Amino acid sequence: MDAIKRKPAQRSTYRHGDLRRALLEAGIALARDGGPEAVVLREATRRAGVAPNAAYRHFASREDLLAAVRAQALAEVGRAMQAQYAAASASGSAADRARARVRAVGRGYLGFALAETGLFRTAFGGPFEVDPEAARAGAEGHNPFGHLNAALDALVAAGALAPERRAGAEYLAWSSVHGLALLALDGPLKALPRPALVALGERLLDMVERGL
Prior knowledge:
By secondary structure, this protein is mostly helical. It contains nine helices and no strands.
C-alpha cells in the first residue's frame, strides 16, 4: 500500500527577519486604528500569531516597538508631503513654482492629519528626534522636515524669500500648520465639516506664504 501523502505542516514560526516585520506591521495597524496608546506589544504578537515571548528577540519593550512604529508613521507623513510636492504646479515663474511647493508640503501635512489621524498622532504624539543632516537633505526620502526645508530653500533661490529671513522659517511654518491640525483633531474645529477644514487650511497657507 502506498504511503499516505500528507500535506506539509504549516510553518508556525517565522524565518529570521520575518517576525520583526510582522510585529512592526501589526504595530502600524494598531496605531492607524487607535493612535500611540493602542500600540501594545502583546496585541501585536497576537496579531502576528506568535507567543508574546517571541517578540522580545526583536523589541525589548513596548517602548521599542512604539519607537519603530513612530518612525514608520513619520515616514508616512513624509510620503504624503512628497506626493503633494511632486504634484505642485510647474508653471509660472521660479518664484511661483517655489510658492506652490511650499503650499503643497503644507497641504500634504494637513491632509495626512485629517485622513490618517491615528498615524499622525503616533508620529507626533511623543518624543522624536529630527536628524539635522536628514532634515537638510531636501525633498528626497520621506523626512517631513526635509520636504519643508527644500521648499523654503527654493523660495530663497527664486528670490521670493530674503536670505536673512530664511533662518528658523521652517519652525514658524511648521508650527502654524501643526497648530491647525491639532485644532481640527482635538480642539474647537473638531466638529467642522471636512470641506470647511480644507478651505481653512488654504487660508492658513496664504497667511504662512505672506508671513514668510
